[in-house]
Amino acid sequence: MAQYFRHFAVIISVVKKSTEAISPISDPYMPKKSVKAITVRSLINFVLVGALAIMVITAVGFRWVSHMIIKDKAIDISKVVIAGLTSHMKAGIMDSRDYFLSEILSLEEVRSMRVIRGPYVAAQFGYGKEQEQAQDALATSVFATGEPRFIERELAKQPYIRAIIPYVATSKGSLNCIMCHIVPENTVLGAVDIEIDLTAYRNLALKIIAAILFLSVVFIALIIINTFGTIDKYIAQPLGSLISNAREAYIHKDNLNPEAYESAEFETVAKEFNLLNTEILANQEELKLMNRQLINLNDEIEDTLRETVFTMGIIEEKRSKETRNHTLRVTKYSNLMATALELSVKDIDLITSASPLHDVGKIGIPDAILLKPGKLTAEEYEIMKNHTEIGHAMLEHSQRDILKAAAIIAQQHHEKWDGSGYPQGLKGEEIHIFGRIVAVADVFDALVSSRVYKQSWSTEDIIECFKKESGRHFDPALVEIFLTYSNKFKEIYENNK
Fold first, then answer.
1. Residues 331 and 375 in one domain
2. Which residues does 416 contact at the CB level (< 8 Å), separation at least 6?
3. What's the pLDDT tens digit per position in 224-236?
């Protein structure tokens, strides 16, 4: 047996490992999801998180790179402007600078541009035109710090970046500012204030994000399709084949072919099943033999119990000086009625086996009362009635179905349909069917038998009595059965005197 559990455990563990990566724990009270549904949910969650992370990283990275390019572009344009203005100044054609600046404005993505003169240049040459004067705190701060300033408006309807690039005096290079301006080295002479349109960059970023999203969806779809194929090929189909082939192998006492399975896990399952199947088949005959022995032993126990019950009924019959074979006849009457009533096979067997003990409680009745040849006094009759409770008390603690049925019969066979019986005064169907049947059988045998204190009743008188007591003493349905089979009742009596 331990070997069976070992093989079974290996089979379960392998199948579990083949699916546990895609099978999250589920509520046992909820409908089970398929492996495909679980896989799709897991993959979509995983890939969406991955795609979102990629989009965020890409967007942040693209924004950073784009802004660096734009800032460099703004600085480059400002250098061109500064170089051009310096050339104009050296050539003495400064009045023509508007044409040059308008050409710069024609560059794609340049929304506006102006040149701001610093305090030193203004002191030397004047402030020039109005637009060449510092007009806000941002421009003023550039002159104070000498550092470029950038302001981005990405969420505007038309996004842009404003860059203010300072023009610092230097004696280095070909643009020697110190030659024209008498100022200290690194003095801020002016600044280029330029706005560059970001619409194209934003649209490009949205296109890239959309492309990433599209590729993510395609990637998810491809993963799902590939996973479905993998599940079908390596899990669903092999598992279905394994179950079907294992059933056939067991029926035909054959082995599975482990080489038919591509995955190592299912190959292992097939091998373990073959070992398990071999051991089961090898011990099957022994198990069948043991089972037959158990059935025979149980049948022997049941037969012994029936014989014991019947013998106890005979013993009680002998002690109470009942008419010879009373117990046997009551048993046969009860079997006849239970069969005619179409009770279950089990119930017919129970009442047939248990009815011999209907009067077993009389064992507890004193001989002076039990064996009294004449009529009992009222007090003696009350004592006699106790045999029903005595019999029930003797049998009620058994767990055997036969003895439990006997306990019911012993207690209820003197109950009456109208509730006037004893010991509990049960009425109608409150009385167990076993008690109702034995009541008819017991009364019939008492009437048809000769006793020291009475003569045997004729069949006609008994029939009239039962008709009169239908619905009073007896169950009407059982009276109808008795009337139908009255000749059979008489035949049982005659054959078992």
1. yes
2. 439, 472, 473, 474
3. 788 777 777 777 7
pLDDT in tens, 475-485: 999 999 999 99
In this structure, are 86 and 135 located in the same domain? no
User: For the residues 293-309, what does the mean pLDDT come to?
Assistant: 74
Instruction: State the Cα angle at 444 between 326 and 436, rounded to 5°.
Output: 100
Q: What values do phi and psi take at 151, rounded to 5?
A: -125, 125
Residue 396 reports pLDDT greater than 70: yes
Kindly report whether the peptide bond that precedes residue 423 is cis, defined as omega within 30 degrees of 0.
Answer: yes
Reported pTM:
0.46
76 in the same domain as 101:
yes
Of 91-100, 112-121, 192-201, 373-382, the poorest mean pLDDT is in 91-100
In whole angstroms, how far apart are CA 384 and each of 366, 367, 396? 9, 11, 20
Tell me whether residue 259 is in a domain. Answer: yes
**Range with lowest mean pLDDT among 208-217, 398-407, 429-438:** 208-217
SS3 per-residue string spanning the chain: CHHHHHHHHHHHHHHHHHHHHHCCCCCCCCCCCCHHHHHHHHHHHHHHHHHHHHHHHHHHHHHHHHHHHHHHHHHHHHHHHHHHHHHHHHHCCHHHHHHHHHHHHCCCCEEEEEEEECHHHHHHHCCCCHHHCCCCHHHHHHHHHCCCEEEEECCCCCCEEEEEEEEECCCCCCCCHHHCCCCCCCCEEEEEEEEEECHHHHHHHHHHHHHHHHHHHHHHHHHHHHHHHHHHHHHHHHHHHHHHHHHHHHHCCCCCCHHHCCCHHHHHHHHHHHHHHHHHHHHHHHHHHHHHHHHHHHHHHHHHHHHHHHHHHHHHHHHCCCCCCHHHHHHHHHHHHHHHCCCCHHHHHHHHHHHHHCCHHHHHCCHHHHCCCCCCCHHHHHHHHCHHHHHHHHHCCCCCHHHHHHHHHHHHCCCCCCCCCCCCCCCHHHCCHHHHHHHHHHHHHHHHCCECCECCCCHHHHHHHHHHHECCCECHHHHHHHHHCHHHHHHHHHHCC
The last residue of one of the domains, among 140, 175, 197, is 197
Distance CA 125, CA 118 (A): 10
Does 44 share its domain with 98? yes
Domain range for 454 is 320-495
Q: Choose one of 145, 179, 197: the last residue of a domain.
A: 197
Q: What is the pLDDT of residue 289?
A: 77
* Residue 349 CA, distance from chain mean position: 44
Could you give the angle at which helices 476-484 and 326-340 cross, rounded to 10 degrees?
100
Q: Which amino acid is at 270?
A: A
CA 349 – CA 418 distance, rounded (Å): 28
